[in-house]
Amino acid sequence: MAAAAAAAQQLVPCMYIFGDSLVDNGNNNNLLSLARANYRPYGVDFSGGPPGRFTNGLTVVDMLADMLGFRPPLIPAYAAAQPAAAQPSDLARGLNFASGAAGIRSETGNNLGRHYPLSEQVEHFKAAVRQMGPNASSPERLGRCIFYVGMGSNDYLNNYFMPNYYTTAQSYDPDAYAADLLQEYSRQLAALHALGARKFAVAGVGEIGCIPYELARINTQQGGGGGSGTAPPATAGTGVSISLGGVGLTIGGGGGAPANASMSSSRTGGVQRRDQQRDRDLQQGAAGDGSGSTGGRSFPGRRSSSSTPSGRGGRWWPARRRTGSRVWNDEINSAIAIYNRGLLAMVKRFNRGQKLPGSTFVFLDTVRAGRALVAGAAAHGFTVLDRGCCGVGRNNGQITCLPMQQPCDDRSKYVFWDAFHPTEAANRIYAAMAFNSTSAADAYPINIRQLAAI
């Protein structure tokens, strides 16, 4: 009787989640990867210890699931629920397939080790559908479930803007790259549609040019403001060796964004950054004017290379923009704006019945949500907008939380938990906007509550 009452309170029969570290809840825990968060202080405010979430407590999708009426236990990670011992009813209630470092492109995030790209997450869902049985996996039932998908951040942070590790910047200008991402994204959404998905909540990419990691790089390389602390010296060498559960892993000198890893405590002094070679390239580019052409359109910050036409593959320098005391990487934000416009256009096409008949898509504008949070920071109790609560270096953004590191005392005052990810307090606001906002500028064309009611 109690179980039936709880189920009756749910607005949808199930919820399935696809994405990256913003919503991963432990799928990377047992992988040989730097993109892991199954150690303290991650999960410091989460009951039961560090579960693998890349924040201090709950993620956006945890809160959305609660708003949809799902009661404990939370929607489980596929890696924990998929063994043969799992009951079909457990899989039918919902699963989280998200994976830290994952992208739309299969190679995205490889600089950080093993993870599950979007295509593999979709394959995992297909396997789960087979395990559920015919009743739970019927198109009629799955068509009433919420499918949350948030992808794309790593395709920029751990791919396109890592020119010493990936070649995408040599092959695509920002417009062409966004088009390529969206074409593959469309294919994977179509695969979910073919399996029965009909109600999609698709999150755009936030302004990652404003996260503590990018602010720290701007401050270090260009002497800009917006942070405190001293920059650690660059060290010699072409790679960083890190221990993951007793297994050694070396990331090459062209490596990318610092990720969560079980690092030796000796690393906390004289911090060795994983993007040493890229920083030297950026310093070489400082002598240029920081402008260039990309595919026939103006794009700030890219410099032309004599060996590559149209500025593709040339050295790049983070183009700064300042509003008041805030400074951010405008080149990354400009590229993301192109992607988000294309994603919104794709959502509109799908909602007109093109390609995926019978489906309803909601576009969540994470850029607008982030700006709204900053504009109303004081009202929400936030006092620190540009530093991670836990981390190392400028803005606590040059390396993410080290094992057993002491985080800030009052997490509710911080927008960012670490160099990349929001705190639980910020996630709560983002979830409330996605679920309840009556503005189509936040959730287009309807919010998630309305999507569930269809």
UniProtKB/TrEMBL annotation:
Region Disordered, annotated ranges: 255-318
Protein name: GDSL esterase/lipase
Low complexity composition bias: residue spans: 296-310
Biological process annotations from GO: lipid catabolic process
Family statement: Belongs to the 'GDSL' lipolytic enzyme family.
UniProt entry keywords in alphabetical sequence: Hydrolase, Lipid degradation, Lipid metabolism, Secreted, Signal
Main location class: secreted
Family matches, as Pfam families: Lipase_GDSL
GO MF entries: hydrolase activity, acting on ester bonds
InterPro entries per record: GDSL (IPR001087), GDSL_esterase/lipase (IPR051238), SGNH_hydro_sf (IPR036514), SGNH_plant_lipase-like (IPR035669)
Organism (species): Oryza brachyantha
Composition bias, Basic and acidic residues: 272-282
Source superkingdom: Eukaryota
